[in-house]
Amino acid sequence: xxxxxxxxxxxxxxxxxxxxxxxxxxxxxxxxxxxxxxxxxxxxxxxxxxxxxxxxxxxxxxxxxxxxxxxxxxxxxxxxxxxxxxxxxxxxxxxxxxxxxxxxxxxxxxxxxxxxxxxxxxxxxxxxxxxxxxxxxxxxxxxxxxxxxxxxxxxxxxxxxxxxxxxxxxxxxxxxxxxxxxxxxxxxxxxxxxxxxxxxxxxxxxxxxxxxxxxxxxxxxxxxxxxxxxxxxxxxxxxxxxxxxxxxxxxxxxxxxxxxxxxxxxxxx
Length: 269
Ligand SMILES: [Ca+2]
Description:
By secondary structure, the chain is mainly beta. The protein has two helices and 22 strands. The protein has one domain (31-259): 7 Propeller (Methylamine Dehydrogenase, Chain H). An eight-stranded mixed sheet has the order 16-17-18-19-1-22-21-20. It has a four-stranded antiparallel sheet with strand order 2-3-4-5, with no helix packed on it. A hairpin with a 2-residue loop joins strand 6 and strand 7. Calcium ion (CA) is lined by residues 53-55, 139, 182-184, 234-235.
């Protein structure tokens, strides 16, 4: 910090001495805050689960997994990681994101252009829907289904018809942020894993601006050894204000609190 502060002091001295008529100096781009975290709970996670979607609902985790021949939708017990209920998606397809809507679950596939509706209680497949491009992550804001597709854009879908209403470009200081993956709506903001990075973007859903990054590098190193078993999976328990994260084939799932960069204190989210 000393190294950073000295130039700031010098700059402010220069600014004080500058004549009032001096032209304004160009300002450096504002650095997007990087949050760290504190682990407040550690739970087992199925190392055969190539996690694509994760959410918390009614006392359980719901998870979707990928890879052809291994793509499932499952209900999972938090404490011991036991898979309580599971269904395979149609043969030959590569599963991706998962979201709840009323008494249904909605899922998508990677490059097959097809998604499914499921009965949440019985896991019975109710029907399919189609979309253009790739399917990556899903979440919802209470009014719309939000979908990522591997680009820097998020699609907002009508929950009744699953047709696209609009798109939101996600940028960090004006620079597009591609490869948005698993999503979670948390208290009016969108959290997004960025594929093959240990970072989660905090996105303002009104502007698409990244307001902060959550750096989970240490957890990624602890759990992942290859380019594919990366951080992916965010779930939020709104009732108890608990944030869960995991990754593809990771042996552990974590409850974390965010730690703000400047104050060093727990972020209220
Ligand atoms: Ca999620």
